[in-house]
């Protein structure tokens, strides 16, 4: 492990610098590792996925940064998550499924509203994949 400077540590603590770990595996099932018994049980995600700028292409270059994924759970609580530079988003907050999802691009003001009641689990990339499953329309795309 490389040592970091005090300034870099302060930036990380303030949330100004993304963790390199949060920039990987775009488009993959986050929940397979971020769960009890997975490779990253210390960060169990209740919902996570990736938003892309284009419907195809390599995920490493297609992530949409700064997009807001808003999840409204069955109890009416909303969680707003901003995508990082890889297009990834995640939360460990408790959610009651199903959730309704909206993707918003603050830069353009455009938004995409997903169907209510369809998202019954938090591993978004399982259904929102290049070959979609569960009635999804494909990858989650920036509006």
Brief sketch in words of this structure:
Helices cover about 10% and strands about 20% of the residues.
Question: Can you tell me about this structure?
Answer:
- With 143 residues, this protein is an alpha+beta fold.
- The N terminus is likely disordered.
- The relative contact order is 0.20.
- Strand 2 and strand 3 form a beta hairpin.
- 12% of the residues lie in helices and 22% in strands.
- It has one domain.
Q: What is the arithmetic mean of pLDDT?
A: 82
- Our count of helices gives 3
Can you count the beta strands? 7
| Number of self-contained structural domains | 1
Low-pLDDT ranges: 1-18
Largest sheet: 4 strands, antiparallel
Helix-strand string = HEHEEEEEHE
What radius of gyration results from the CA coordinates? Answer: 15 Å
List keywords for this structure.
disordered N terminus, alpha+beta, 143 residues, four-stranded antiparallel β-sheet, globular
Topology:
Elements: H1 6-14, E1 47-52, H2 59-62, E2 68-72, E3 78-82, E4 88-91, E5 100-105, E6 110-113, H3 124-127, E7 140-141
Parallel strand pairs: 1-7
Antiparallel strand pairs: 1-4, 2-3, 2-5, 5-6
């Amino acid at each position: 492990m490389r040592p970091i400077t005090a300034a870099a540590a302060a930036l990380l603590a303030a949330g100004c610098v993304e963790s390199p770990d949060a920039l990987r595996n775009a488009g993959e099932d986050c929940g397979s590792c971020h769960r009890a018994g997975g490779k990253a049980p210390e960060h169990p995600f209740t919902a996570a996925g990736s938003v892309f700028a284009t419907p195809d292409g390599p995920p490493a270059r297609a992530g949409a940064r700064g997009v807001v994924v808003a999840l409204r759970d069955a109890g009416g609580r909303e969680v707003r998550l901003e995508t990082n530079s890889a297009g990834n988003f995640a939360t460990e907050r408790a959610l009651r499924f199903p959730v309704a999802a909206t993707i918003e691009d603050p830069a353009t003001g455009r938004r995409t509203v997903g169907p209510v009641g369809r998202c019954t689990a938090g591993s978004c990339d399982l259904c929102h994949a290049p070959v979609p499953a569960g009635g999804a329309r494909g990858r989650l795309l920036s509006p």
